[in-house]
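Hi all, long-time lurker, first post. I run a small reading group and we've been trying to get comfortable going from sequence to structure in the token notation. Rather than ask abstract questions, I figured I'd post a concrete chain and ask someone more experienced to write out its structure so we can walk through it together at our next meeting. Sequence below, copied exactly:
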Amino acid sequence: MSSDQIFQLFAYTFPSIVTGLIAFYFFRLHTKNEEGRRRFLLHKDSQKDAMPARMQAYERMALFLERIAIPSLVVRVGPISENKSDYEHLLIKNIETEFDHNLSQQIYMTDECWNIIKAAKSATIQMIRKAAMSETETADKLREDILTETMEKTSPSTTALSYVKKEIGALW
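-- Answer (accepted) --
Happy to help. Here is the structure in token form:
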């Protein structure tokens, strides 16, 4: 083969190779773009379907936090006997039952939000236990002591509820 023939062969194949590479590049770019678009649409559809479930979970946890707030809990759950220990256990059992009832809602929430809700539950139980260690004799007096002690402080439920509201606001 002469150099003239090699040059002609190169002159015919070079544009074909360049055209093929450009076509491959654009085809790959188009395929990647289409895959991204499909992923976005799938994510958008799943968000549309999941959003009502997430909102319901946040609503239920807001209700839980309102129900375990000391003032509403003590008003709603009255003592069944004069024994303060029985009343303490009744309040704690009520909180634990409410929490267990809403346990499945954690799959719709962020880990941070769920941990704050758990911390609010634990702090509320600790406040009840701390008040029960006082010198009071009756369940009614314990009830008054719990209310008196919590009047001065911000409720853990209130703090957690404000975080839940902030997280819901971030969803929009």
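A couple of things your group might point at:
The helical segments are 3-68, 70-76, 84-101, 111-132, 139-151, 156-171.
The chain has a mean pLDDT of 89.
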